[in-house]
Amino acid sequence: MQGKIGNTSYIHEALKENDLYAKKKFGQNFLTDQNVLSKIVDAANIDKDTLVIEVGPGLGSLTEHLVKRAGFVLAYEIDKDLIPILNKTFKDYSNLEVIHQDILEVDINKDIDLYKKDLKKVYLVANLPYYITTPIILGLLSKTEKIRQYVMMMQLEVAQRITGKPKTKDYNALSIAIGYRAKASLELKVPRTVFIPSPNVDSAVVKLSLYDNPPYKAKNEEFFFDFIRLCFNQRRKTLMNNLSQKYKKEFLAEMLHKFGIKDGVRSEELELKDFIKMSDYIEDYYEN
Asked: Is 56 exposed, middle or buried (0-12, 13-18, 19+ CB in 10 A)?
């Protein structure tokens, strides 16, 4: 499916006609490659039973593909100068609502309930602003379980961290925080050359599919997320040294022995279930 909006000439003309420019403060880089846009929507596997949440529609390159496939598209745009352009461009589409609001401040559950109506699925599909990618993802994951799938363009380095596996350099606290709630996969790498203006980094599309029944669950999730940040506080240090900033080494040695974990282990060598065991054990110990 080829769109008319997301090509280089359209982007240049739209910016010129409206006396606009890409704003660094909003992390604006407009995607121009139709093939990439189609692949993003294909990866999302949306249909007329889907309510799609889009963050940062910009000039509507991805939006054009979404409104043609989805039952309804709810797009949040923080830049007020782009709102009239989007409304004019998509005036003939009844299945799109553009909201001028910061996604970090949205009552997402309220909005989903308002616009979902009889649609069966809620997915997020977006070219995320790179400077706040992580806060957006973690914020939405903590606020709602109504969005069951996320397909997002982001900085390649962040994508690699989110999809990082144990015993690799990319595995970190973010990998675990995401992996606790969803299965993450890197769907597509995207070169910096297909954006206007070109960012300083390459990009990638990541897909998160939320678990209906998570394989592991912490007793206290807030404590668990704080705990994994402490575990990876200084990557070059061992797990013991990171945790000893807060807990006594004798206690930690006893815990590691209990779970068959060697004293000199580094956090990137362990799996999600290991962190949950330790988190539950520490919380139980100090709670009692």
From this structure: buried
Query: Is residue 103 helix, strand or coil?
Result: helix
Distances, alpha carbon 77 to alpha carbons 5, 85, 133, 154, in Å: 17, 11, 15, 17
DSSP string, 202-224: -EEEEEEEE-SS-S---SSHHHH
Question: pTM for this structure?
Answer: 0.89
Q: Give dist(CA 62, CA 96) in Å, integer.
A: 13
Q: Could you tell me which of 41, 29, 30, 28 has the C-alpha nearest to residue 2?
A: 41
Q: Which of 97, 108, 59, 53 is nearest to 79 (CA)?
A: 59
Structure tokens at 242: 């990171």
- CA angle, corner 149, sides to 146 and 152, nearest 5? 125
Alpha-carbon span 74 to 126, nearest angstrom: 11
Domains of the chain in sequence order: 8-210 (3.40.50.150), 221-287 (1.10.8.100)
One DSSP character per residue, 241-278 reads HHHTTTS-HHHHHHHHHHTT--TT--GGGS-HHHHHHH
Only one residue has tokens 């815990």, namely: 255
* The residue to which tokens 């054990």 are assigned: 281
Tokens 């974990």 belong to 261
Q: CA angle, 160 as apex, 219 and 27 as ends, to 5°?
A: 100
**How far is it, in rounded angstroms, from Cα 111 to Cα 103?**
11
- Based on its alpha-carbon atoms, the radius of gyration of the chain, rounded to whole angstroms, reads 21
Instruction: Report the chain (288 residues): mean pLDDT per 10 consecutive residues.
Output: 56 59 55 89 97 93 95 95 91 96 96 97 94 94 97 96 96 96 97 82 96 94 96 93 95 96 95 97 85
Per DSSP, helices labelled H in the chain are: 8-17, 34-44, 61-69, 83-89, 108-116, 133-143, 156-162, 173-181, 221-231, 239-243, 249-258, 272-287
